[in-house]
Amino acid sequence: MPTSPPPPTWDTRRQRRQARLQRATQAGIGRHVEAARIKTLLETVIAPGDRVCMEGNNQKQADFLAQALSECDPQQLHHLHLVQSVLALPSHVDLFERGIASRLDFSFSGPQGGRLARLVQDRRIEIGAIHTYLELFGRYFVDLTPDVCLITAQSADAAGNLYTGPNTEDTPLIVEATAFKSGIVIAQVNERVEHLPRVDVPGDWVDYVVVAPRPNHIEPLFTRDPAQITEIQILMAMMAIKGIYAEYGITRLNHGIGFDTAAIELLLPTYATALGLKGKICTHWALNPHPTLIPAIESGFVQSVHSFGSEVGMDAYIAARSDVFFTGADGSMRSNRAFSQTAGLYACDLFIGSTLQIDLAGNSSTATLGRITGFGGAPNMGSDPHGRRHASPAWLKAGREAAGPQTIRGRKLVVQCVETFREHMTPVFVEQLDAWKLQESLGMALPPIMIYGDDVTHLVTEEGIANLLLCRTPEEREQAIRGVAGFTPVGLARDQAQVDQLRARGVIRRVEDLGIDPRLATRDLLAARSVKDLVRWSGGLYTPPSRFRNW
């Protein structure tokens, strides 16, 4: 008789987890870890080749844990595979320079983009993919499940329950993906307390808690000083409000980061009100609590805001405006990046943002030569979701413009609002994106394009608005883009006769076509012209970070 094969083992991950926990116990480490012993814990429970997720968010950083990991012994910890939303801190990149980590799947790198590009070119980092946030989050539950996650929260109690405060961001998602696949969850907190305001992460999902020697870093990523908004940005904001928001009746929307969108927010109580648009546009938002949104909230424009994360100095204001923000019984906001990304993808009718380069097909990217910044949530916000099934007037109108009255679906509006030249007179409009050169030089499977041209519906520049929905051929689309590209080489190569025809059809509209007096595009039109003005609008509830206080 042939012998039967041994029965399969179905709990190897659980056994591996127990072995890691046992090693920590043998090292004298319990649930609550002294800060001085954190490197010992990391070297004990993390193994070479592990998949590690750090927070690593847009704003909130598990900076103490990241620094400790970067200081571990590369002989003990090496070939780690980092899977995290954002590489924001120098210590994140230090992991690769020291040989502790070797592979990376991420969404956004921000200020570390230059270092990241150099390490990739030196073949010291292998990039799996540059993801959107939702894409990476989804893979946590499929094929990029973390073995260990390093997270951060405001406070913990004796049982290890966590309170994340307003900057919940990615925390619940990271913990769930790790804890329910037999991974190890390590949390740094700012304080240990007897009673939490609310429980955001239950203690039995958390293995180790360390009180960090300093509060975790939170970047005021969405704070823009109105004093830096230019008259060109005000003019473009006027065009966007009158030529897009008003015409489509945009009530549900997301704004990208930048002074272009901050200008729009600060024109709602003034210019949009004068146009009679209060209650007709900009009522429901998927948006971080931008300080520049305060005047629109106080003016009664804004009914609801769901946020990806919070913003430094906005806590008291948010607590006092619970009708607008999603807050708990304790008064603090509950943000959630995954839920807000989903809202921005499916529940919003418009995304408006900016970019560094746009080509003749309308493709755009923030990945340029010498800098790999990633995309964050822009490809989700700035895409037309074919899974959408509910209708709205704006969505239907855009669909009819794109495909005619017999269309069976609408279109999400995706707007790129850019000046034709950026800093150092570098043109935004180019014949070919740097993304193609990056694909070749870095050996990537795809060029790192942020938003594909077939998703872009409108371009707004100081020259006017190009409605790409109304273009019927690739040639028309190219000339519509050239027609608003200004004095860039792309703009100067336009076919003027075709551009004039497109303008006659309303595909291209200049300021005068929209009935806008450019002489009104002054800083006097802004509802707030300084951060101090924003504080006044908030009734003193907004307390800006020190670097934005110049009074």
Task: Please characterize this protein's 3D structure.
By secondary structure, the protein is an alpha/beta fold. The chain is built from 19 helices and 21 strands. The chain has helices at 12-26, 38-45, 63-70, 90-97, 113-121, 133-140, 171-179, 231-248, 259-274, 294-298, 315-320, 337-347, 378-381, 393-403, 434-442, 474-482, 489-492, 496-504, 531-537; strands at 32-33, 51-54, 80-86, 101-108, 126-130, 148-156, 162-163, 184-192, 208-211, 252-255, 284-286, 304-306, 350-353, 357-358, 364-365, 413-417, 421-422, 426-427, 458-461, 464-467, 508-509. A hairpin with a 3-residue loop joins strand 17 (421-422) and strand 18. It is globular and about 80 Å long. The model has no long low-confidence stretch (mean pLDDT 95).
Task: Report the span from N to C terminus.
Answer: 90 Å
The third-level CATH topology of the largest domain is Glutaconate Coenzyme A-transferase
Estimated share of beta-strand residues: 15-25%
**Beta-strand segment tally:** 21
If you compute it from the alpha carbons, what radius of gyration comes out, rounded to the nearest whole angstrom?
25 Å
CATH homologous superfamily designation of the largest domain? Glutaconate Coenzyme A-transferase
Helix content percent band: 25-40%
Mean pLDDT: 95
Mass-distribution shape: globular
Number of domains: 2
The major beta sheet can be summarized as: 9 strands, mixed
CATH class placement of the largest domain = Alpha Beta
Instruction: Give me the secondary-structure category.
Output: alpha/beta
**Counting H and I runs of at least 4 residues, what is the number of helices?**
19
Please name the CATH architecture of the largest domain.
3-Layer(aba) Sandwich
Residue windows where pLDDT falls under 50 for at least 5 positions:
none
